[in-house]
Design a protein that fits this description.
Elements: H1 3-19, H2 28-40, E1 44-47, H3 64-73, H4 78-84, E2 90-95, E3 102-108, H5 123-126, H6 142-158, E4 165-171, H7 180-185, E5 194-200, E6 208-214, E7 218-227, H8 243-254, E8 265-274, E9 284-293, H9 296-316, E10 320-329, H10 336-347, E11 353-359, H11 366-375, E12 379-385, H12 404-420
Parallel strand pairs: 3-4, 3-5, 5-12, 6-11
Antiparallel strand pairs: 1-2, 2-4, 6-12, 7-9, 7-10, 8-9
Helix pairs in contact: 1-6, 2-4, 6-12, 8-9, 10-12
Bound molecules: zinc ion (2 copies).
The site of one zinc ion (ZN) has 3 residues, from loops.
Length: 421
């Protein structure tokens, strides 16, 4: 197939995924479509449920049966949806049968939980490819990432000169950093010589490529549920155990955690709900919390202190406490020489300016994969491909200039070619 045709297909697929956005652990249609394309290309496809251990899965609240049904109604192949089982996502291998390196690439496939803009100024709406799933929108560009991964799969298969083995991971639930850890613990990065993750946009202009980002913040997302005892507020208040006071005490004191000399930390109590009726001692309270840190040490510090404060507050009011982790990611740095190589290949494209390194302060759970590969002696980078965007990431009016898609595709392809020849 000509490269022009592959690029056309990539754009068409991006728009198809854009119309059917699926949030973390709901991506049955997306996974089935990816599987169908990769099976036709004779990749060795493994659904995520083959490698995931339930204990490593975070933030899975999807109604599996309902999402599978919806996916089939929206055109997914029913037998592929069935093969997914309880978890979305997959990985696919291309073994050239010739000795050479083992490279792994990660593409995230989930959307953001927001409704998409229906303004005529918003191009996907104007051109008829806006979201058809209420409350769901590809507002981070992962529709583009998925399409890039599939186009790369085609280019690699057509190239008869490659050596070694290439694995493409289509990761579920990146938003809220929920899926990356489980995929990593599934062992599918082990033994990799090279690892690539990529993101479009990120505030960088079209035509700019950064070979390797660094400075990702570690982040932990977790819920705290307090259970006390409800009692009559007038007749026997001494019999109650007040969960609202426990949660409120915790919230105030979480913000009083001392800063750490080792680097930046962040804490946010995003949700606190408690109480039942005006004359009832509140028996239940529920909090959604996140912590972040610049280093593993500072991130562990702020998370550990948070748990101590939650436990202390529960003790003060005689409450039971359950803490449930909903998402977690570590920090990582791109490997300098591999980042340099990516920048060099990107620079060979017309109109592209590329730098090897850039710091940023977001979070992405591809960092689990980067760390795993680096700890095993391999090299890993997180590439940024700049793109003109119509609104910030996660905004309802987010869209990106599709001219960035072939830039990302070519950068990855040329870099892999260098490593696998
Ligand atoms: Zn995002
Ligand atoms: Zn993203």
């Amino acid at each position: 197939m000509s490269k022009e045709r592959i690029v056309q297909d990539m754009i068409a697929r991006r728009r198809d995924f854009h119309q059917y956005p699926e949030a973390g652990w709901e991506e049955y249609r997306t996974t089935a479509k990816i599987a169908e394309i990769l099976m036709a290309l004779q990749y060795d496809v493994h659904f995520a449920s083959e490698c995931l251990k339930p204990a490593d899965v975070m933030g899975h609240t999807a109604d599996v049966k309902a999402e599978q049904k919806r996916a089939v109604e929206q055109g997914a192949n029913p037998s592929l949806v069935r093969l997914c089982g309880d978890y979305t996502g997959l990985y696919a291998d291309f073994d050239t049968q010739r000795p050479g390196p083992f490279t792994v690439l990660r593409f995230d496939i989930d959307c953001v939980e927001t409704a998409e803009s229906e303004s005529p100024n918003h191009r996907p709406f104007r051109e008829g490819f806006a979201s058809r799933n209420p409350g769901r929108c590809h507002a981070c560009g992962h529709d583009g990432h998925t399409a890039i991964g599939l186009a790369l799969a085609e280019l690699l298969k057509e190239d008869r000169g490659l050596k070694g083995k290439i694995r493409l991971i289509f990761q579920p639930a990146e938003e809220g950093v929920r899926g990356g850890y489980a995929m990593t613990q599934g062992g599918i990065l082990d033994g990799a010589d090279y690892f690539f993750a990529l993101h479009l946009g990120l505030g960088f202009p079209g035509g700019a490529v950064y070979g390797g980002l660094g400075g990702f913040l570690c982040s932990t997302k977790f819920d705290a549920a307090f259970t006390g005892y409800g009692a009559h507020a007038g007749m026997e208040p001494e019999k109650g155990r007040n969960a609202l006071l426990g949660a409120a005490t915790a919230a105030i004191n979480l913000y009083a955690i001392a800063p750490h000399s080792g680097g930046k930390t962040r804490i946010n109590v995003g949700v606190l709900t408690a109480g039942e009726g005006r004359n009832v001692i509140p028996p239940k309270a529920y909090m959604k919390i996140e912590t972040r840190g610049e280093t593993n040490e500072t991130a562990e510090y702020i998370y550990r202190r948070s748990v101590e404060i939650l436990e202390g507050s529960a003790n003060m009011f005689g409450l039971d406490l359950v803490i449930a982790k909903q998402g977690e990611t570590n920090t990582a740095e791109s490997s300098p020489d591999l980042a340099e190589l990516v920048a060099e290949e990107a620079r060979s494209l017309p109109g592209i300016t590329a730098e090897p390194f850039r710091r940023m302060s977001g979070s992405d759970d591809a960092t689990w994969m980067m760390k795993r590969v680096q700890d095993g002696g391999g090299k890993a980078v997180y590439i940024a491909v700049g793109a003109a965007i119509s609104a910030g990431h996660h905004n309802e009016a987010f869209d990106f200039d599709e001219a960035a898609l072939p830039v990302a595709l070519e950068t990855l392809y040329r870099t892999i070619k260098r490593l696998h020849i």
